[in-house]
Structure formats: C-alpha cells, structure tokens
Amino acid sequence: MQELGRSGYRDDFARTRLPPRELWPDFRFTLPELQYPQRLNAAAELLDRQVAAGAGANIAIHSVARNLTYSDLLAHSNRIAHVLTDDLGLVPGARVLLHGANTWELFAAWYGCLKAGGIAVATMPLLRAGELAVIAETAQVSHALYDARFAEAVEGAMAQAPVLKHALAWGPGGELENRMAAKPAAFDNCDTAADDVALLAFTSGTTGKPKACAHFHRSVLAMADSFARHVLTPQPGEIYAGTPPLAFTFGLGAFLVFPARFGLGVALPARPGFEALAETVQQFRATTLFTAPTGYRALTGLWDQYDLSSVAKAVSAGEHLPEATWRAFRDKTGIELIDGIGATELIHIFISAAGEAIRPGATGKPVPGYEAEVWDAAGNPANPGETGRLAVRGPTGCLYLADERQKTYVRKGWNITGDLYRKDEDGYFHYVSRADDLIVSSGYNIAGPEVEQALLTHPAVAECAVTGAPDETRGTIVKAWVVAKPGETPGPELAKALQEHVKQAIAPYKYPRAVEFLDALPKTQTGKIQRFRLRDEG
Q1: Can you name the residues that pair with 201 across neighbouring β-strands?
Q2: In this model, does residue 175 exceed pLDDT 50?
C-alpha cells in the first residue's frame, strides 16, 4: 500500500484521524490523466494554471452582481489567502468553515482557503446554529468565512462551539472585503501533498450523526478527470448552471471544479428556486445544467416561459431519476438527460452515461477510472439481473474522519454505497432502492432520526417516527407519524404547528411535508418502532 506523502500541514488533526490503513478503500488510478504528482495544491492546479495557460481573460463566473474573469478570481482568492494567514493566523491544516449561498465570494473563499493550506468545510446555507456547532466540534473548525446574511447562524455556532474562534463575513456589514483591499494580489500557495486533506464534506446517515468525509487534493481533480472529462466531454465556451449548493460535492464539482479544470464559465442564480435558474439560463445563455430530478420536472413546466434554447446538456443526480421524468423532459426539450449516481463519500458521480450510450431507466455504466459491481448478501458478485448492494472503487473513496462507520462502508477495498442495484447482461446498472432508511428528497439527504428528535422537543408530541413516503413531484418526501400527548387535538392545525417547529429547530428543508397522527406506533415486543410497517402504509 502506497505511503502517504510528506504533508504540507503543520496542523495534523485531519491526517491523524483518517481511518486505519486496513480500512481504506483500494484507490486505483488506471487512466493516464489520473496519475498526479506527489506535490499538488488543487486550488493552484485549477485556478493558477488556467491563468498561466492564457485563460485569464475568460469569464469564470457570470452573475447579476458581477462577472469575474479567471484573473479576477485568482486575485480575490489570493487576497483571501493573505487575510486568513496574515490577519487570522491560519496554520496549514486548520479547518475553515465556509458558509453561504453560491456566490462569487464563496468561490473565492474556497480557493483562498486551499491556497493558504486550510481544509475547506463548506456547509449548507440553511443550517442552523446548532447544526453548525456540531460540525465545528466534530472537525475542530477554528476559522470561518461566511455571508453576512447568515451571521445569526454562524455567531450562534461560535457561542456553542468555542473552538470556532476566528470569523469574517463578506457582504454588507462584513469586514472581509476591507481586509482584502489591503492585501497583494499574489500569494505563495501552500506546498501541499497530493494526499493532504483538501476538504471535509459532511453527510448525515440514518443515525442523524454527521459524518465527515475527507477528500484529498488529488481527489478534487480526479472527479473532473473522470466524470467531467469522459462523460460530460466539456467544450470551449460552455457555461454551467444549476441548483446544488457548493456544500454538496455534486455542486462543488459542477460549478467550481469542472469549469475551472477546462477553462469554462459558470452562471450563478441570484436566489434559490427553479424560476431563478431559468432566468439565469436565459440571461447568460447557459449550456449545461445540473440539478435533481425535481428540478427537471419543474423546468419541463417552465420551458415555454423562458428562452432556454442555449441548453445542450443536462445532468441529473442527487436522487434516482425516474424514466418517466427522463422521457417527459426529452419530449419537451429534445435533451436526453445524463443520469448519474455519486456519493459524498466518493466525492462525485461514478456511474453514468451520455449521448448514444444512454438507456432510459438505467443509471449507466461505470465512469472511466471506476469499477462497479453488484454484490449479493455474501459479498460476491451477483448474477446479471439479481438485486444486490452496489460496490465501487476507483481514484476516490470513503475516508470517514474518526468514525466507526468506516468499517461498514468499506469492505475488501470496495466502497459499499448503501444503494441496491441490479446489472443487466450489457453491463448497465439499474437503480432499485436505498438499502437503509436515509430519506432522499429533491436531492437532499435527510436523516429521519434527526427530524424525530426535533419533533420530540415539541410539547404536544408523545412519540413519533419519520419515514420517506412516495411523492409524484419530489420522488420522496419526509413523512412524520405522530402520537399526540393526552389533551392535545390531532389535526391540520397541530400538523402545521409541528412543521413550523421543525423548521425552526433544524434546516427547513428537513421538515415533514406530511404528518399523520396515530393512536400508537407499531413496535416489536422489545419496544422498537417498526418503521418498515409505516413505510408500507405510505
């Protein structure tokens, strides 16, 4: 097994908390473009190299607020790196919370963090203070750069997690821009190893306890040199647009890594929502879309209201793409959606198909650089047509930060994603379902126990259980099954009150869109809730 390279970090927190080597996935670099040098800084490779190659005048970011060339973005990122190191005392290897919506400032902060030797910890903009505090404590995050519009959550997290000591905001009321103005536009990038941790991507499993997925500098490039290079086949002049936040590695790849790797542009919507995405495509003539199936269902209805004729490619990920959605979008637009399955643990998409290789209803085949199998219950390759667990290996893989769940995710060197699949005689992979209780709704992963905990803090709730329920629009929604306390009146008013309560307790997108009241929850003789019976009832 290859030894780790000499680290460029003084703070060894992340490296020393990687799993034991015997629990690592079998990393494979089977393509020439995946052969990376031992010394590598992903931000420098993406951003500095584009400018050095003569692409500095290319528009990197299109937005209503402003357009930035690659030279502009490089200068801003270098100034942020100076602020982190000169003013905030960032030590290489320290973790930096990045909190905000997809804006040019967030992109520059991500680059600046890696250039300074920081480990980026991007977070969903809708997370509350308590959720940010858990992330900060888990990763021992010492610094934060954030959008001033989300100051309440960050400041609340700082109060709850004393380890988070240094923070600067951008935007109205923030200090970051003033600090940047006094800094030079050049920066001596941190000399990082290719296998130094570049980012920690947090995901919640069925227990609700967040898991930190560590990804190396080389892994950031690998998602571009596998899926983007071979499936998307980027062409000069393309402009990417979509909805996933940068905190999702789906969005990180789509809007920051892929465009920079190939000198393309990204167009950022000024606000959330699919109408805003349609406006952005129309205004900036975006060519390539990234969103979940929910987004494509919405865009199908919006297609005649906007001029979206510039769109030539569209990638669907985040949740299973129903064949009916694929066909409805193709019939309306003429565009054949590129389906894909990825995982935060593997950083991006590893099974997909594009162009003539697309088979409606199938996810596709392993992306060049990856291998995939369907395993039976004994951990052996299943026969064609048989359902089993999806196993994947390639240039990226699962490295949970100090988490016992590593033993479950990685087996015999393969990443076991928790998805149930079947493979046909032609080698195409067909999605069946999730193997666990994780609820995937509109591209968001939602842990039922976390929603249950929020519901149980309401004084009217005696018991509750949360499951996924089928929904025509979102694919799956969060559904709460509630036993009310004596004296409470179950009904629409209480259901609405519980929904609002959850929105205030945790990120609003996690709230139960359906609430059903029961006299009692189904349980085993030992008192465990039988959630499978609730799921069967819908």
Answers
A1: 213
A2: yes
Residue 130: Cβ-neighbour burial (10 angstroms; 0-12, 13-18, 19+): middle
Are 19 and 201 a contacting pair, CB within 8 Å?
Answer: no
Domain with CATH 3.30.300.30 in the chain: 439-537
Q: What is the mean pLDDT of the segment spanning 185-200?
A: 98
Whole-number average pLDDT of the chain? 93
Lookup: tokens for 276 = 């805003």
Residue carrying structure tokens 């858990």: 134
Burial (Cβ within 10 Å: 0-12, 13-18, ≥19) of residue 108: buried
- CB distance 337 to 322 below 8 Å: no
pLDDT band at 455 (very low <50, low <70, confident <90, very high): very high
Phi, psi at residue 166, to the nearest 5°? -120, 120
CB neighbour class for 141 (10 Å; exposed up to 12, middle 13-18, buried from 19):
buried
Kindly report, residue by residue over 416-448, the tens digit of the pLDDT: 998 889 999 999 999 887 776 667 788 787 877
Residues 6+ apart with CB under 8 A from 360: 323, 326, 327
Long-range residue pairs from 495-500, CB within 8 A, at least 24 positions apart, any chain: 497/458, 497/460, 498/455, 498/458, 498/460, 498/461
Q: CATH 3.40.50.980 region(s) of the chain? A: 38-192
3-state secondary structure of 358: coil
Instruction: Identify the pLDDT of residue 533.
Output: 87
Cα dihedral 353, 251, 241, 181, rounded to 10, equals -150
- The overall longest dimension of the chain from CA atoms, in Å, is 72
More confident: 308 or 319: 308
What is the CATH number assigned to the segment(s) 38-192? 3.40.50.980
For 272-345, strand residue ranges (E) read 288-291, 313-316, 338-342
**Residue 398 CA: distances (Å) to CA of 58, 84, 115, 258, 413:** 35, 29, 24, 21, 10
Check: CB of residue 292 under 8 Å from CB of residue 243.
yes
Q: Does domain 439-537 have CATH number 2.40.10.220?
A: no
In angstroms, the Cα distances linking 29 to 34, 126, 139, 224, 225 are: 5, 36, 28, 14, 11
- 8 A C-beta contact, residue 505 and residue 499: no
CA pair distance 503, 513, nearest whole angstrom: 11
| pLDDT one-digit tens code per residue, 462-480 | 888 899 998 888 888 999 9
User: Which residues sit opposite 366 in a β-bridge?
Assistant: 351
Helices and strands, number each (H, E), in the chain: 18, 25
Tell me the pTM.
0.86
3-state secondary structure of 500: helix
> What is the enclosing helix (H) or strand (E) of 119?
strand 119-123
Q: Yes or no: say if 417 and 400 are a contact pair by the CB < 8 Å rule.
A: no
The bridge status of strand 338-342 relative to strand 288-291 is unpaired
pLDDT value for 528: 60
